[in-house]
Amino acid sequence: MPRDVFDLVQQEIPRPEYYVQDILPKSGVMLVYGEPKVKKSWLVQHLAFCVSVGIPWLGLTTIQGRCFLSNFEISPISYQWRLKDMARNFELQPQMLYEESHMLMYLEEEHNFNTFKQWVRELQPQVIILDCLAACYGGDENDGGQMANFIEKLTLIKAESPNSSMVIVHHTNKNQMAGSSTDRARGHSRLAGWVDTLCYIAQQPTGVQLQIKARQATREVPNINIRFANYNWSVN
Known about the structure:
By secondary structure, the protein is α/β, with parallel strands linked by helices. It has one domain (32-89, 96-235): Rossmann fold (3-Layer(aba) Sandwich). It has 7 helices and 11 strands. It has helices at residues 5-8, 40-53, 76-87, 110-123, 133-136, 144-158, 189-194, and strands at 18-20, 24-25, 29-34, 67-71, 97-101, 127-131, 165-171, 197-204, 207-214, 224-229, 232-235. A hairpin with a 2-residue loop joins β8 and β9 (207-214). The longest helix is centred in the middle third of the chain and has 15 residues, at 144-158. It is globular. The N and C termini lie far apart (49 Å). The relative contact order is 0.20.
């Protein structure tokens, strides 16, 4: 139903809220991508710990929320040890951070989709993390139609938990000549075009840098130089 903008601007409208300041809006989607072995999984795991506790992440404020870490790539034992190692840096609270290490669970398949949707319905997480796309999507990443169908599946999963946001871990393509970080996400452009925030992890000579493009941000988010030490990420 069309709305008269004159009437709209007279109303008291709450400003958008973010689970992570400027880059992860409530009900939004963020794509975290980079080359292999740049510690993408460690980074999103750290984000989940920070949001579940309600403390800043890399200098960005957070709103505390229940997080669901879904690992489809790393073996369950290895992943659980990663969680134990990182947990030393946090004062965790019960029922605020959940994980599932299923490995290769293609969510476009009906049984897997229904199972995962049920988990979200039961847990009611505020932040859902899928790590990584290649291990939870078995279709052709470069096919626009298939990717559109998968995006619809992800939207339905998010709808199971009100105001939930989603973080998707992904890889870069092989185009070394790409002029912008926004062109480095692997697969069809539908995915990069759908998400609210692109978070590219760039390996630099001096360390690791986050290059962020966020369409809902209230400001231009500057690049963030970060480092990983003692199972903890910090601003460099």
